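Risk mitigation, structural track. In case the binding assays with IPE fail to produce interpretable data, a predicted complex structure has been prepared as a fallback.
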Amino acid sequence: MSDLKFGLTETEAETKELFKKIDKTNIPEHVAIIMDGNGRWAKEQGQDRLFGHFHGVESVRAAVEGCGELQVGYLTLYAFSTENWERPETEVNGLMELLVETIRKESESLNKNNVKMHVIGDRSMLSAFVNSELDYSLNLTRDNTGLNLILALSYSGKAEIIHAIKNIAESVKNNELAIEDINDAVIKANLYTNKFPDPELMIRTSGEQRISNFLLYQLAYSELYFTEVRWPDFRKKNLFEAILDYQNRERRFGKTSAQITSS
Ligand code: IPE
Ligand code: IPE
Ligand code: MG
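Fallback model:
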């Protein structure tokens, strides 16, 4: 209540309270988000799907800001899957335009905030125009040392694994690698995400409870958090709630609870 007197809105006060509750010594290093529900959100307001995508940009800003405040090291956002290419052409084009517009508008401020951008996915399916915008932002932020913001674009977890298998098979064929030496580390080194740790926490909005071809290998031991909130309504408060939920879980990695508590 006292915060309200200091001019904070109820949501801001609530966000601040949640922030305080978070254990700053147990922040996930990598948070991955399936940003879902834009279309349904728009439909609920009698608008077309692109309206929902447009409003989802504010939620991206909130997620980036919230992760920055908590010093999360890596934030991966599932922005467009290879399956999404099958959507109606107007939606695909609208999404690509929104992507370019957003990168143009946000790159400078991301750079000022020390954010380093990365892209994972099949960039050969993106237009030259989209690719050049992405390159601009990747270049601009390449030396930054703050939050690593990873955009999964034209991304497919299966395609990523197939790509890794092909690379590994090539190394075996060229006698650079023995079959006996193929292990988890070798596979990891050949994924698009080879420079990033696996996500400790994966959030999906809009109530769907599936992975939809996202980070199949990397999510092996991630904590999964599903919320009914549609992506355009997602704010820092929702991120903080997810992180608090994560902090209340016991990550056992196959061991017993007693083993975890004694160590
Ligand atoms: C997520 O929202 C954005 C993308 C997949 C690009 P959707 O567009 O999937 O919205 P719903 O799931 O149809 O509501
Ligand atoms: C997953 O959402 C892809 C992104 C959020 C970019 P979808 O809306 O495409 O997934 P499905 O079709 O519901 O599984
Ligand atoms: Mg969806």
